[in-house]
Amino acid sequence: MAVTGEETESAATGDMPVYQLRSPGSGLAQTIVMLASPGAMHSPPPHAEEVTRKREVRLMKNREAARECRRKKKEYVKCLENRVAVLENQNKTLIEELKALKDIYCHKAE
DNA sequence: CCATCCGCGCGTCAAGTACC
DNA sequence: GGTACTTGACGCGCGGATGG
Fold first, then answer.
1. Mean pLDDT per 10-residue run, chain A (110 residues)?
2. What is the value of pTM for the model shown?
């Protein structure tokens, strides 16, 4: 569970989900399709069914992983938005407080 | 209506990372 | 190293909003 960069400090809103921020990868479009080895072009490999089954399992797992990943990301964004709201409120309160203190100070000085 | 745009979620691939 | 998991990027389809 590596937590990177700006995710290390979780305050205000409490438990933030773990979310990694990574540098973008190469933006290659996925135009390359799995190709069979040259020799296997006409006769299917000995365990073609097994290969197909493994691929389906992998795809299914990844499908679910992607869903989960998106869910976590949405939750993370929601947490960030909450935190923004909390900090904006705190900021507002502090500004008010500062104003009040300045007023008191000014009246004393007179 | 209908064409167009926009936002959203999905499935997939590929690259990175963690774990053994 | 090999395997499983995570996540960014891409392309696609769908449904709602909107202007003509």
1. 32 40 31 36 63 92 97 94 94 98 85
2. 0.66
